[in-house]
Amino acid sequence: MPKTSAALLLFRHGTDGLEVLIAHMGGPFWARKDAGAWSIPKGEYTDGEEPLAAARREFAEEMGSPPPGGEPVALGTVRQSGGKTVTTFAVEGDFDLAGFRSNTFELEWPRGSGRMREFPEVDRAEWVPVAVAREKLVKGQVPVLDALVGHVGSDT
Protein backbone atom coordinates (compact mmCIF):
# COMPACT_ATOMS: atom_id res chain seq x y z
CA MET A 1 0.00 0.00 0.00
CA PRO A 2 1.45 3.40 -0.96
CA LYS A 3 2.52 5.70 1.85
CA THR A 4 0.66 8.95 2.32
CA SER A 5 2.18 12.28 3.33
CA ALA A 6 0.79 15.72 4.01
CA ALA A 7 2.65 18.93 3.22
CA LEU A 8 2.34 22.60 4.08
CA LEU A 9 3.67 25.07 1.52
CA LEU A 10 4.16 28.59 2.86
CA PHE A 11 4.12 31.41 0.33
CA ARG A 12 4.60 35.15 0.40
CA HIS A 13 4.90 38.04 -2.00
CA GLY A 14 8.56 39.10 -1.99
CA THR A 15 10.66 41.55 -3.95
CA ASP A 16 11.17 38.92 -6.69
CA GLY A 17 7.48 38.01 -6.90
CA LEU A 18 5.82 34.96 -5.40
CA GLU A 19 8.16 33.09 -3.03
CA VAL A 20 7.77 29.68 -1.38
CA LEU A 21 9.50 28.09 1.58
CA ILE A 22 11.27 24.85 0.66
CA ALA A 23 13.56 22.53 2.62
CA HIS A 24 16.69 20.61 1.60
CA MET A 25 16.47 16.95 2.57
CA GLY A 26 18.97 15.89 5.19
CA GLY A 27 21.18 12.83 5.40
CA PRO A 28 24.16 11.59 3.45
CA PHE A 29 22.32 10.73 0.22
CA TRP A 30 21.22 14.34 -0.36
CA ALA A 31 24.27 16.12 1.09
CA ARG A 32 25.92 17.06 -2.21
CA LYS A 33 22.77 17.42 -4.31
CA ASP A 34 20.84 20.59 -5.02
CA ALA A 35 18.55 20.33 -8.06
CA GLY A 36 15.79 17.86 -7.26
CA ALA A 37 16.93 17.50 -3.62
CA TRP A 38 14.48 19.90 -1.97
CA SER A 39 10.98 19.28 -0.68
CA ILE A 40 7.96 21.03 0.69
CA PRO A 41 7.93 20.42 4.47
CA LYS A 42 5.92 17.21 4.78
CA GLY A 43 5.58 13.91 6.53
CA GLU A 44 3.63 10.69 6.66
CA TYR A 45 0.29 10.27 8.34
CA THR A 46 -1.90 7.31 9.13
CA ASP A 47 -5.48 6.39 8.23
CA GLY A 48 -7.89 8.38 10.32
CA GLU A 49 -5.54 11.32 10.80
CA GLU A 50 -6.61 14.61 9.25
CA PRO A 51 -4.11 15.53 6.48
CA LEU A 52 -4.10 19.25 7.37
CA ALA A 53 -3.35 18.50 11.03
CA ALA A 54 -0.55 16.15 9.92
CA ALA A 55 0.85 18.81 7.56
CA ARG A 56 0.99 21.35 10.39
CA ARG A 57 2.60 18.81 12.76
CA GLU A 58 5.21 17.78 10.22
CA PHE A 59 5.99 21.41 9.38
CA ALA A 60 6.73 22.08 13.06
CA GLU A 61 8.92 18.97 13.31
CA GLU A 62 10.94 19.78 10.20
CA MET A 63 11.22 23.55 10.69
CA GLY A 64 11.52 23.79 14.48
CA SER A 65 8.39 25.80 15.20
CA PRO A 66 4.72 25.82 14.17
CA PRO A 67 3.66 27.35 10.87
CA PRO A 68 2.07 30.78 10.87
CA GLY A 69 -1.69 31.02 11.11
CA GLY A 70 -3.66 31.70 8.01
CA GLU A 71 -6.40 30.23 5.89
CA PRO A 72 -5.16 26.97 4.35
CA VAL A 73 -5.81 26.31 0.68
CA ALA A 74 -5.95 22.72 -0.55
CA LEU A 75 -3.60 22.34 -3.54
CA GLY A 76 -4.41 18.69 -4.24
CA THR A 77 -2.57 15.41 -4.13
CA VAL A 78 0.43 14.38 -6.22
CA ARG A 79 2.16 11.03 -6.61
CA GLN A 80 5.94 10.97 -6.32
CA SER A 81 8.17 8.60 -8.30
CA GLY A 82 8.40 6.09 -5.42
CA GLY A 83 4.60 5.82 -5.25
CA LYS A 84 4.09 7.98 -2.15
CA THR A 85 1.16 10.38 -2.41
CA VAL A 86 1.49 13.88 -0.99
CA THR A 87 -1.55 16.00 -0.13
CA THR A 88 -0.50 19.64 0.01
CA PHE A 89 -1.98 22.73 1.60
CA ALA A 90 -0.76 26.29 1.13
CA VAL A 91 -0.78 29.09 3.67
CA GLU A 92 0.22 32.68 3.00
CA GLY A 93 2.52 33.97 5.70
CA ASP A 94 6.05 34.59 6.77
CA PHE A 95 8.44 32.34 8.65
CA ASP A 96 11.67 33.55 10.23
CA LEU A 97 14.42 31.10 9.34
CA ALA A 98 16.62 32.32 12.21
CA GLY A 99 14.96 29.75 14.50
CA PHE A 100 15.14 26.90 11.99
CA ARG A 101 16.05 23.51 13.45
CA SER A 102 14.89 20.12 12.25
CA ASN A 103 14.17 16.89 14.04
CA THR A 104 16.64 14.06 13.38
CA PHE A 105 16.74 10.42 12.35
CA GLU A 106 19.28 7.63 12.82
CA LEU A 107 20.90 5.76 9.97
CA GLU A 108 23.70 3.26 9.70
CA TRP A 109 26.48 5.25 8.02
CA PRO A 110 28.58 4.36 6.21
CA ARG A 111 26.28 1.59 5.07
CA GLY A 112 27.43 -1.78 6.38
CA SER A 113 29.70 -0.22 9.01
CA GLY A 114 27.50 -1.06 11.99
CA ARG A 115 27.80 2.57 13.18
CA MET A 116 24.59 4.51 13.71
CA ARG A 117 24.70 8.24 13.06
CA GLU A 118 22.15 10.94 13.58
CA PHE A 119 21.17 13.27 10.73
CA PRO A 120 18.68 16.14 10.47
CA GLU A 121 15.56 15.35 8.46
CA VAL A 122 16.02 18.74 6.83
CA ASP A 123 19.45 20.40 6.81
CA ARG A 124 18.44 23.85 5.57
CA ALA A 125 15.44 25.84 4.38
CA GLU A 126 15.10 28.83 2.07
CA TRP A 127 12.58 31.26 0.68
CA VAL A 128 12.90 31.08 -3.11
CA PRO A 129 10.97 32.43 -6.10
CA VAL A 130 8.63 29.90 -7.71
CA ALA A 131 10.90 29.62 -10.78
CA VAL A 132 13.81 28.55 -8.54
CA ALA A 133 11.59 26.13 -6.62
CA ARG A 134 10.70 24.42 -9.92
CA GLU A 135 14.39 23.51 -10.34
CA LYS A 136 15.10 22.56 -6.73
CA LEU A 137 12.04 20.51 -5.73
CA VAL A 138 11.81 16.78 -6.33
CA LYS A 139 9.96 16.36 -9.63
CA GLY A 140 6.85 14.84 -8.10
CA GLN A 141 6.16 18.01 -6.12
CA VAL A 142 6.55 20.53 -8.96
CA PRO A 143 2.84 20.29 -9.97
CA VAL A 144 1.97 21.73 -6.56
CA LEU A 145 3.61 24.98 -7.66
CA ASP A 146 1.26 25.13 -10.66
CA ALA A 147 -1.70 24.71 -8.31
CA LEU A 148 -0.37 27.50 -6.08
CA VAL A 149 0.15 29.86 -9.03
CA GLY A 150 -3.37 28.99 -10.19
CA HIS A 151 -4.71 29.95 -6.77
CA VAL A 152 -2.68 33.16 -6.42
CA GLY A 153 -3.10 34.16 -10.05
CA SER A 154 0.56 34.77 -10.95
CA ASP A 155 4.08 33.86 -9.87
CA THR A 156 5.26 37.47 -9.98
From TrEMBL:
Domain Nudix hydrolase: 1-150
Pfam families: NUDIX
UniProt xrefs under Gene3D superfamilies: Nucleoside Triphosphate Pyrophosphohydrolase (3.90.79.10)
Superkingdom of this protein's organism: Bacteria
Signal peptide start and end residues: none
Record's keyword terms, sorted: Hydrolase
Protein's recorded name: NUDIX domain-containing protein
